[in-house]
Amino acid sequence: MTPTKQHTSPSFRPLYEQIKVLLTQSLIAGEWHPGEAIPSEHELAARFKVSQGTVRKAIDELAAENILIRRQGKGTFVATHNEEGIKLRFLRLTAADGQKELLENQMVDFSKTKAQGDIARMLDLKAGTSVIEAKRLLTFSGRPMILDHIIIPAGPFKGITATKIQEKNGSMYSMYETEFKIRMIRAEERLKAVAADEEVSRLLGIPLHSPLLSIERVSYTYGDVPMEWRLGLCITDTHHYMNELE
Amino acid sequence: MTPTKQHTSPSFRPLYEQIKVLLTQSLIAGEWHPGEAIPSEHELAARFKVSQGTVRKAIDELAAENILIRRQGKGTFVATHNEEGIKLRFLRLTAADGQKELLENQMVDFSKTKAQGDIARMLDLKAGTSVIEAKRLLTFSGRPMILDHIIIPAGPFKGITATKIQEKNGSMYSMYETEFKIRMIRAEERLKAVAADEEVSRLLGIPLHSPLLSIERVSYTYGDVPMEWRLGLCITDTHHYMNELE
DNA sequence: GAGTGGTCTAGACCACCAA
DNA sequence: TGGTGGTCTAGACCACTCA
């Protein structure tokens, strides 16, 4: 599959974008695994019959999207949720004082159900498709902090169990990656403030109607395919959600 | 001031980073104004005695930081908060149904006070420095939605009045830019859920202890100098805060 | 058609890393 | 020392905009 340098416009696509697509296809096909190095820029340039600079620009963009990671002198690597420090990449909740903390994870509910309405739509599933539904309590340094409600399609995650979630100590994305070869690339979050209802206040050990930060998240794998819906209810008296605007 | 191509390392700095600094200095000095075009890449390459590709890389990064804006065929422009569509660049709150809405702005309080404790620290001011303090109510499509508490140093904003804030219909950053030549480049936000107290519930017209999304924001101008502290309390039954994670 | 940003090349050389 | 990513160049050509 050789990229074509199509000139004199009608529907012009830069070469480096075509390279980007080819690289992404290799990633999806599993040619290179998470944490591994991909071939050097020179090798890829030779393979695709383009200059090193063009490969470089393609990799630059994939690196900006956190799909690849450059390491000077060592190579370019496939991003993973498995490494220390990169774990919990999507967790924006930090303590007011910036302390490091112990994270624990307790399953509250685990069941197989059918996708309905909004959630089916957000996961791009037909209503009635089988889904796995889990509720868990996250504990920060011994204190209950987040009540998570997670829904994933049963098909791609065939064979998942409550135990598998427990084992990785709450790092779901790491588990998805190693157990199901599903890599989450990006996520969209919607935040609001809500009042704790009876069930939630009991589980989190807080008064009824306490204010909670509600974080609804849809995570996407390659090709912008939604693969997980999640609703986190967070106690935010000692913690807050950090965000940088540019 | 010619950039030096320093080779054989000790404390190596890429040429394009030096160019980036020079461009930023020109922006601070007011050589080019918001909304205006900067010189072409060729011109800048000639001025700085480097190749076009090197200037390009410097501009690329400034464009990624939303400090410059590229427009193919037209030129590269200094970013501004004044344009339609770019206005409210930092407002992440959107309606659940994505409707366009009318925004109104009503001043509740406007006074000159002294910076204290945490706020002085976050604005990088000595305790006791004069600051302007404003509270205002933002109304979306006729419904009270956000109660803003804003604090800015009095010095750089000498001559500010409640009227000036009202006039621009709530677009503070646009006003800062045109009236005080202060351009906000980026901001950090910390979100939590809180319960409405007596004053807040009265002003927003909601029951006492209703859950509110609290958005604390510090905005920075060139050189990472903090210039505004803001606390927004938002009703989030019909709206939510959107965020994209990569 | 002239001017601007955008793409692509081929090649040189540098900084960083590991063996 | 050799391989990798990172920088820089000089030049060609393309796509887009506007007069």
Automatic annotation (TrEMBL), chains A, B:
Residue ranges constituting the HTH gntR-type domain according to the UniProt record: 13-81
Segments traversing the membrane: none
SUPFAM superfamilies: Chorismate lyase-like, Winged helix' DNA-binding domain
GO terms (BP aspect): negative regulation of DNA-templated transcription
GO MF annotation, one: DNA binding
Keyword terms: DNA-binding, Transcription, Transcription regulation
InterPro entries assigned: Bact_HTH_transcr_reg, Chorismate_lyase_/UTRA_dom_sf, Tscrpt_reg_HTH_GntR, UTRA, WH-like_DNA-bd_sf, WH_DNA-bd_sf
Name this polypeptide is given: GntR family transcriptional regulator
Species lineage: Bacteria, Pseudomonadati, Pseudomonadota, Betaproteobacteria, Nitrosomonadales
